[in-house]
Amino acid sequence: MKKLVLAFGLMTLAGTALAAGKPCEELKSEIAAKIDANGVPHYSLEIVDKGAATDGKVVGSCEGGTKDIVYKRG
Fold first, then answer.
1. Strand order in the sheet with 67-73
2. pLDDT tens digit string along 44-65?
């Protein structure tokens, strides 16, 4: 019984951590590092509210899915 309670507690804790998502600045930095590694010379990454109208491509979601990271080349 103790093992079952412990397992349930760990799953709940892990689920809460995943639902919180990454901070936007941290994810933006990780995405920028990957783009830089591919040698893309001119681009921009912008943090916007989820569902906001943009003319770029959504390349990430952060802060529990409430914000998107938008990529524009050039």
1. 43-49, 67-73, 57-62
2. 999 999 988 889 999 999 999 9
